[in-house]
Amino acid sequence: MKIRLNDVVKTFDTFRAVHGVSLEIESGELVALLGPSGSGKTTILRMVAGLEYADHGHIYFGDEDATDIPVRDRGVGFVFQHYALFPHMTVAENIAFGMKVSKVKRTPEAIRDRVEELLALVQLSGLGERFPGQISGGQRQRVALARALAVDPRVLLLDEPFGALDANVRRDLRRWLRKIHDELGITTLFVTHDQEEALDLADRVVILDKGNIVQEGTPEEVCRAPQNAFVMKFLGDANALPATVRDGKAYVQDIAFDAPDLKDGPADLLFRPADVSWRESGDGVPAQILRVLDRPDSRRVLARTTGGQSIEFDTAPEFPHKKGEQGFLDIRRPRVYATT
Ligand SMILES: Nc1ncnc2c1ncn2[C@@H]1O[C@H](COP(=O)(O)OP(=O)(O)OP(=O)(O)O)[C@@H](O)[C@H]1O
Description:
340 residues; alpha+beta; Rossmann fold; CATH 2.40.50.140; 6-stranded mixed sheet; 5-stranded antiparallel sheet; 8 helices; 20 strands; 25% helix; 36% strand; binds adenosine-5'-triphosphate
């Protein structure tokens, strides 16, 4: 089922949470809505679900205007971070619940078979008789997904489903979710504020800031070609140095970087910690090492330029230089954005 949002606006009292968002999610695609807290992700998801109405614009399910489709007929399955399972029902009863109240009548045997099938799908066979309090948080979220899948949704909406779990469990669950998505191919909209989660999982990532889409594209496109400083900073660690653009070059303390598309004026030079090398001599940006931090497979160096800017960069664990040493920063793959 293809979903299309066309110039959708949502205002709460006087606060505009979503500003004219247009977006297409192809049938079978897994799209992540990614953005900081308050950027409008959940509001967009709730409008697709029919739990909230747009003030302006339209949402289409296939060719049909969703406004005309009642919530229970939209064929939407949800998993929310805090959408708790019913604590007094067993795991199997939780999964069966939607099938029992559905308009589609199923025999008790058909429901039992489907519950077994779903338990196997979410790798929880044998745990059907447990209560939610007797399984782990990660297992509970897998049950929540099985419950959402039970009624054969056409669209799956996931709002920070792994938000409350610790980092390792989250990583396992998102790889697992991607596998299930590849098996079932249900159109899925996934909300997260975790960049790595979005990049790991999604076919396409939609980045939001203050209710606007600031960039959308494949994980590769948004990582390799961030269209503005917000996206560059939001997607990972980024260093920033003030620069001045003159005749297609951005100058930082007399060192020139290519900036062919920018007009003359103030700009920011942004670059990743992995794209900096330390030189004892040469023509990089002069700096001094402030601290060297050890990581399991690398070293993170904190330095300060002679202009007073803090810079962080990553090196091999063998990096021999120490606090207080002076040298030069060789910056690769910088991106230059006009100062806004
Ligand atoms: N029912 C409501 N009444 C008033 N304001 C609301 C309501 N729901 C959301 N908002 C506001 O709309 C903005 C967007 O909220 P939304 O929950 O969509 O953001 P989000 O990107 O999902 O954030 P988070 O990651 O924190 O969940 C926020 O500023 C929020 O306070």
